[in-house]
Prior knowledge:
Layout: E1 13-15, H1 16-23, H2 27-36, E2 42-44, E3 47-49, H3 50-59
Antiparallel strand pairs: 1-3, 2-3
Amino acid sequence: MTTQTEVKKTPLYITDAEVMETLDISQPTLWRWTKKRDFPKPVMRGRRSYKAFMEWMVGKGLV
């Protein structure tokens, strides 16, 4: 039986600050990637889908 403390929840969103820290990129780079590449677009101000971000990371071979 699984308890709630054993279940690790996947976040729904990742903040732009977390994305920049994870990828070691600047805000202008994040904007450029969002505009000109297939990088996940924000779903609300300063937040992106965590699932889309992880899929992008896997697709780029970063995970």
